[in-house]
Write a structure and sequence with these properties.
The chain is mainly alpha-helical. It has a domain of about 100 residues. A 3-stranded antiparallel sheet has the order 1-2-3. β1 and β2 form a beta hairpin. α4 runs parallel beside α6. The chain is globular and about 40 Å long. The chain starts with a strand and ends with a helix.
């Protein structure tokens, strides 16, 4: 659900409609703080929620912080390598904040790192996010090439 630029969620264990909706980002932050969760998925969702509600500076700060925090940490079962993916996501926020050349550098570094890792899901996510950047830049040929590469990875590995 959405309300005034916020993604809203029901707290875990609450029945839909029987508990107040909370901003998803706030709910995730509480869960991380209460349980001392170091899991990459929770941090990734907080960063995404922050970006999508429009807090670009905070989203960029979180991307940089968690790139460092999870560098060298075991990935576990989370299918995305956060230190490789976060710069691509950060690139879009940096671009929208006016850092055009810095955004390109971030996205290219993320793409290079994802290719070196040879993790198809990470590479697919990075390609999608780099594609968003090129779409914002109105570089249609680059968007087409990136989309084709992402679709090829999806088809090869059975991703939806």
């Amino acid at each position: 659900m959405h309300r005034a630029g916020q993604h809203l969620c029901w707290p875990s264990g609450a029945r839909a409609g029987r508990a107040p909706l909370l901003p998803c980002c706030e709910l995730l932050r509480r869960q991380v703080a209460e349980t001392r969760v170091r899991a990459q998925p929770a941090h990734w969702m907080i960063e995404l929620s922050t970006f999508f509600i429009g807090d670009l500076k905070e989203a960029s700060r979180l991307s940089r912080t968690w790139m460092e925090r999870f560098e060298g940490a075991p990935q576990g079962r989370f299918p995305i390598n956060l230190p490789a993916e976060a710069p691509a996501h950060d690139a879009l926020a940096v671009h929208l904040l006016g850092g055009i050349s810095a955004a390109l550098k971030l996205s290219q570094g993320s793409l290079e790192r994802a290719r070196i890792l040879k993790q198809p899901f990470t590479l697919g996510m990075v390609l999608i996010e780099v594609g968003w950047l090129y779409q914002v830049r109105r570089e249609s040929e680059a968007v087409r090439e990136i989309a084709e590469a992402a679709m090829a990875i999806g088809e090869e590995h059975g991703f939806p």
